């Protein structure tokens, strides 16, 4: 499994596209946090990374499908999937290697954003950032990235077209993150069903973790989604 994981890492950084994707992710987050109005923490006046943790999930909607779109679709297209089947690996090990390889890239993209927290802490004159909430938010962002990664790999397993895999992965991730939240706000669900519909989406659980409280229900939700999409991916590989 770790052979596949290493292969994914090397393949992503073997071209300029991989570096550009991460650079654009960091640059866009930096501009939103320190330069652009309405999200600029310097104009806001408080030592907080709330604007970063609010916008990052939407930017990851594009970054992670970019990472995962070639995971399996490219194997189909280039014919190397036949070579994968000759390796002494189970489909679950191949899927696990693809998943952890892509997730390591996502974590590598998130690690440099710690500079934002350090910068705001240094700029703060009183108190500083809420360390507990910040750590919880980073934990939630990694969990969110893991779900996006599982969805992206699953989308890639359905097609040999990387563009289709990117669009499908980004679309499903958007629906999971914001779709249930939007549906729960419809007037027809105001009688009490809105809470349960909202809890079906990622956004509600991500907000919960971002408060610095690690709830077992939120963890079960994230792990459940990851297992579900990886299971679907494994079934696809077995059919192939």
Q: What is shown here, in short?
A:
This protein has helices at 2-12, 16-34, 41-44, 50-68, 73-78, 81-86, 91-110, 114-123, 131-156, 162-184, 193-199, 202-210, 216-239. The protein is globular, with a radius of gyration of 19 Å.
What is the topological layout?
Elements (H helix, E strand, L loop, with lengths): L1 H11 L3 H19 L6 H4 L5 H19 L4 H6 L2 H6 L4 H20 L3 H10 L7 H26 L5 H23 L8 H7 L2 H9 L5 H24 L1
Helix pairs in contact: 1-7, 2-4, 4-9, 4-10, 7-9, 7-13, 9-10, 9-12, 9-13, 10-11, 12-13
3D architecture notes:
By secondary structure, the protein is mostly helical. It has one domain. It has 13 helices and no strands.
Listing every helix as H and every strand as E from the N terminus to the C terminus, the arrangement reads: HHHHHHHHHHHHH
Extended strand count: 0
Low-confidence runs: none
Strand content: under 5%
Structural Rg: 19 Å
Give the terminus-to-terminus CA distance: 19 Å
Describe the global form. globular
| Class by SSE composition | mainly alpha
Helical fraction equals over 70%
Q: Give the overall average pLDDT.
A: 85
| Total discrete domains | 1
Query: Number of DSSP helices?
Result: 13
How is the main sheet built?
A: none
Task: Write a concise keyword list for the protein shown above.
single chain; 240 residues; mainly alpha; 13 helices; 0% strand; globular
């Amino acid at each position: 499994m770790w052979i596949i994981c290493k292969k994914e890492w090397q393949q992503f950084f073997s071209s300029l596209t991989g570096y550009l994707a991460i650079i654009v992710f960091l640059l866009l987050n930096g501009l939103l946090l320190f330069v652009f109005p309405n999200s600029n923490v310097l104009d806001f006046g408080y030592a907080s990374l709330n604007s970063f943790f609010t916008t990052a999930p939407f930017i990851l909607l594009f970054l992670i499908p970019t990472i995962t779109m070639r995971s399996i679709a490219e194997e189909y297209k280039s014919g190397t999937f036949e070579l994968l089947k000759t390796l002494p690996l189970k489909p679950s090990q191949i899927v696990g290697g693809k998943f952890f390889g892509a997730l390591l890239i996502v974590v590598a993209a998130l690690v440099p954003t710690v500079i934002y927290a350090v910068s705001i802490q240094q700029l703060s004159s009183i108190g500083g950032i809420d360390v507990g909430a910040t750590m919880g938010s980073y934990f939630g962002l990694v969990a969110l990235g893991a779900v996006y990664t599982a969805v992206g790999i699953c989308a890639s397993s359905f097609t040999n077209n990387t563009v289709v895999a990117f669009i499908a992965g980004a679309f499903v991730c958007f629906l999971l993150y914001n779709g249930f939240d939007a549906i729960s706000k419809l007037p027809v669900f105001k009688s009490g069903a809105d809470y349960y519909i909202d809890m079906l989406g990622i956004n509600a659980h991500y907000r919960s973790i971002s408060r610095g409280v690690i709830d077992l229900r939120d963890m079960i939700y994230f792990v459940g989604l990851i297992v579900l999409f990886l299971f679907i991916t494994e079934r696809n590989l077995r059919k192939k």
